[in-house]
Design goal:
Elements (H helix, E strand, L loop, with lengths): L3 H11 L13 E5 L23 E2 L11 E2 L4 E2 L14 E7 L7 E11 L8 E2 L5 E2 L4
Antiparallel strand pairs: 1-2, 1-5, 3-8, 4-7, 5-6
Length: about 140
């Protein structure tokens, strides 16, 4: 899914009707226990202070094929120093931002399987298993 913000930035830049906000040049992926919304809200990421959690820069994306881009290499989050997503609130969504901290939510989607991420865990998104596309 794409947020309204991201769709407006793309359309404004592609068609030259609103170029005041440039397309991002760097993208970061994170995880959320709650379902994000098209207005860019309702994301619940772990508190980064002392937990080891941080969004990971997307750096090995493939060229588009039939409008879809995927991750050529595995995406590894840092090792968790505390429980990021306990059984009561597992990671259910991935979120893509234009900044490592704060920033604008651009894209999101549900994980194929929710994940409990406890202390001393390295969460990984396997190569070629993340699919990004522009959708309504």
């Amino acid at each position: 899914m794409n947020t309204t913000y991201f769709k407006n930035v793309i359309m404004g830049n592609v068609f030259g009707t609103a170029t005041g906000t440039e397309l991002p040049t760097t993208y970061y992926i994170g995880l959320s226990s709650t379902a994000p919304t098209a207005d860019g809200t309702n994301v619940t990421e772990p508190n980064s202070a002392g937990s080891g959690y941080t969004r990971v820069q997307l750096s090995s994306l493939t060229a588009p094929a039939d409008g879809v881009i995927s991750n050529a290499n595995a995406i590894n989050f840092p090792e968790s120093l505390s429980d990021w997503f306990p059984a009561s609130a597992p990671a259910r969504y991935y979120v893509i931002y234009d900044s490592k901290n704060e920033g604008n939510l651009l894209m999101y989607n549900q994980l194929t399987t929710s994940r409990i991420i406890e202390t001393n865990t390295i969460a990984t998104i396997k190569a070629n298993s993340l699919y990004l596309q522009l959708t309504d």
